[in-house]
Amino acid sequence: MRWTGWWAVLFCAIACGGGSSGPSDPGGGGAVTGPDGGVVDAGPSDAGSPPDCAGLVPAGPGGAVSFDVRTNPGDTCTGSAIDGQGVVAAGVQPAIQPQRWFVFAAPYGQSSGNFEAPSIIPQPSGFMGLDVSPLQAATVVVWDGNGGIAPGCTPSPVGNASSVVLGRSIDAGVISLSATPAGLTVRKHDAHAGEVASTTVSGAFTPRAVVEDASGGVLAVTANGRALSGFWVDLAKGTAGQTFPIGSATTVALRPLLGGGVLVQLDGAWAGVMNTGETALHAVPSWLASATDLVPVRGGKAYALIKGAGAVGIVSAQGSSCGSVTFPGVSSISIGVDGSAAGSTGSGGCTRYLWRNVLH
Prior knowledge:
Elements: E1 29-31, E2 39-41, E3 65-68, E4 76-82, E5 88-93, E6 100-104, E7 111-116, E8 120-122, E9 127-132, E10 137-143, E11 156-160, E12 164-168, E13 174-180, E14 183-189, E15 195-202, E16 207-212, E17 218-224, E18 227-234, E19 239-240, E20 244-248, E21 252-256, E22 262-266, E23 269-274, E24 281-282, E25 293-297, E26 302-306, E27 311-316, E28 321-326, E29 332-335, E30 341-345, E31 351-355
Antiparallel strand pairs: 1-3, 2-28, 3-31, 4-5, 5-6, 6-7, 8-9, 9-10, 10-11, 12-13, 13-14, 14-15, 16-17, 17-18, 18-19, 18-20, 21-22, 22-23, 23-24, 25-26, 26-27, 27-28, 29-30, 30-31
């Protein structure tokens, strides 16, 4: 199965990147006495669950490990990302400096390192993103579980950071869009961040989002003000299709579906599904309901639907609603490559609870 996880696109353990020391040493906690219990709804019991729901809903979230992300005055705790080894990168936005990620590995008592990146895409081991120089030159790299550079990496320069976006790949690595006055280059980066395929489309573009779907097709989205346009790219052939309108929005997010196609989210609302190679949006699946995001879990057999606070719905890859899990005591939840769940709580959301492998 090619679907090794697109929320945290999978790759080999050799990684690259650059660690740096932060303004403080985050850590603390590590106790296994965090919230336990939680609520599991396995769906309707009278009619029985659909066959494709078998084994998808856990018996319960169980106990959690807790740890604190220590910050300086003016810092804001942001989201979490979890790699395939259960390593957590906890985001902190300083008042002036770029976004910083503090890395916590088992037993989670102290941060093992940190690095700066605008955003990251977790991998089977480590986190891939843009390493940005003081002159704004951007390089695709992978940071390891200590926030530093691992041997064997192949960093890929991709241009000025203001003109580059990264998106999920269906397998190891990421997809990047980078614009110059002459055109837009679409690249696929492998497990080591090295460029393995690319094509360039002539013209003036402002890149906004990109993703690879289950068929290997790449959907690239660019903007002219609020007006969004898309086009499909076949990196294997080095070709790109004609552009087509997607909608009007300030923010755009793309989520590939397990069976093919891409969910399009505009300004936080689901706008529709773009089938591979097509140029028109189709209706949003009814099973998505009020979820704000979705993550493939259970080895590509299901989605975890993020519904706000600690609520997570479970839907099979075929679209059957299988039940839900509520993770107690947290105001938000993130699901990792390994099926672990991390929630935020405490002052400013700087305390994290981690439930290991609950949706593996």
